[in-house]
């Protein structure tokens, strides 16, 4: 039993480490690919289509070689999930374009309370006071790190709301679909990736043209840009798989809270690799955020242990009234032989 817990803990850490490393790596690769100082590939939605296309190919190869098994999930649920996921991607891109960086960061931070409220509405999930307090500490810390100027306009506000709601719903749906159909994270991703890839590759160039005013057909691709697109797609496979894996193992709220560790990593790496400015305000925000994450991990663990104790107590204890009723039931109803239908004396 102890060895099983250790193995589970190691696999949890491995899944989370894969998500953090691949997410930070893809941000660094995309920064080089999409910045004007790099390869100026400003087609974010189409690039996401490439990501899902490569992920879909990996899934098909995995199923064909028997590495993973394909389980049945109704097509309408896959289509519904893909629409929500694509709305999340498109909404985030539009939010970044129409809003200031400060308001964009605030909208991302709002996902944690939104996920909490949606899980309470959809799954009647409740959170302890310690978990709520730790979430607030994380939000404050990351807010101090990242939020600068805040400018709001109506279009940007609508896009930000759409992005936050669809992203929160997508992350909750990943966990609920895995539980509902007893399907693994990679198997679910293998089913949704082809639908997302097809829709994003068709719509992506039009969305990118609206966002950047440039056509992807006019882009002169170089060998360096090709290599970075390939690197971005490779990292996206690990990022997508680990996201599904983490939400399946933890919860959408935990994924959001611990996900802000990536923000801290990105700020630090940006300072180390790209000479980005790292102020005292950034450093203080990072420290507050990390403290909040540590408190959150402790609070979730306490909540789990408390739930396990309550469950064990409810299973192993009977009230005096329950014992009395059981005794009365045995005395009044003698045992019967099922085959002969006679009372045993």
TrEMBL record:
Membrane-spanning segments: 7-27, 39-61, 73-96, 102-121, 188-207, 219-241, 253-274, 280-299
Keyword Ribonucleoprotein part of the UniProt annotation: no
Domain Sugar phosphate transporter: 23-297
Topology within the bilayer: Multi-pass membrane protein
Alphabetic keyword roster: Membrane, Transmembrane, Transmembrane helix
Location of the protein in the cell: Membrane
Domain of life: Eukaryota
Predominant place of localization: membrane
InterPro entries, A to Z: EmrE-like (IPR037185), Sugar_P_trans_dom (IPR004853), TPT_transporter (IPR050186)
Protein name: UDP-rhamnose/UDP-galactose transporter 2
Organism annotation: Stylosanthes scabra
